[in-house]
Amino acid sequence: MKCNKKINDKELMSNQIVLQYYEYKYAEYQKFQISFPELKKEKDSIIMRMRNFEFSSVLDIGAGSGFWLSEYYDLLSTYIGIERAKSGCDNIKSVYKKKLDNFFVFNEDVFEFKYKNIPDFNSIILSFFISHFNNETVIELIKNISKAKPYFNNIHIIDSYWSKLRKSKYNDKYLEIRKRTYRDKSQVDIPKRYIDESDLNKIAADLNMHCEYKFLGNYWLYCILWNQ
Q1: Which helix (H) or strand (E) holds 80?
Q2: Under 8 Å between Cβ of 189 and 179
Q3: Of 96, 51, 98, 59, which is closest to residue 81 (Cα–Cα)?
Q4: 203, 140 in Cβ contact below 8 A?
């Protein structure tokens, strides 16, 4: 079953019930640790490659709770995070506000945010963001950002990979509604898919960028899109 065009990804991810789910999820992330050995190994491999990159100023789209930021904040001169869930913003502020001189976190929707009003940045971080949206939605967002801030030169993507392991377990990779369990055991509809090279190559081509694959694991991937 190919990508369901009837799924309104932005509308679903903006739903108040979905927001409440992420408020709960990010509050829990303060004590979250990866316990599955292979996932921890993949995370460490990604972080090792990220830390080889000369970061300076970063725009973190859908910043979450700062889970990945903990591994590279010391490389930054400027951090700009945008996250709709207040608990995620609160987590990031409580840990990193005093550690970075140029530190900005906005509790806003990434699709409605006025990017022209923030400082310039060199890099964009998209960690587990793309897999909740269609390629077209992601491309539209990046193009809107580049109109306001045209001088960034790379995009770092970490996300769920459509690997051989996942192909052996699941029917398809395309965007569909998946159930997530909320604190009272009720379920929330979240749009979710898996990402592979064809998705990233399409996004890169539409943005006139070059795609460099840094890590392809059984569960996660890491790549950098560069301006040509």
Answers
A1: strand 78-82
A2: yes
A3: 59
A4: no
Q: Is 140 helix (H, G, I), strand (E, B) or coil?
A: helix
CA 72 to chain CA centroid, nearest Å = 15
- The CATH number given to 9-24+39-227 is 3.40.50.150
Q: Which residues pair with 26 in a beta bridge?
A: none
Please report, for the chain, the start and end positions of each structural domain, with discontinuous segments joined by +.
Answer: 9-24+39-227
The partner residues of 158 in beta bridges, in order of sequence, read 127, 222
Contact 210, 226 (CB under 8 A): yes
**Whether 68 contacts 88, CB under 8 Å:** no
pTM here is 0.91
As given in the structure block, the two tokens for residue 159 are 């996300």
Q: Which of 12, 6, 5, 3 is nearest to 172 (CA)?
A: 3
Q: Which two tokens stand for residue 49?
A: 């490659």
Question: What pLDDT digit, counting tens, does each position of 40-97 carry?
Answer: 999 999 999 999 998 999 999 999 988 899 899 999 999 999 999 999 999 999 999 9
Q: What are phi and psi of 194, to 5 degrees?
A: -110, 150
The dihedral region occupied by 66, where left means phi > 0, alpha psi between -120 and 50, and beta the remainder, is: left
- Pairwise CA distance, residues 225 & 228, whole Å: 9
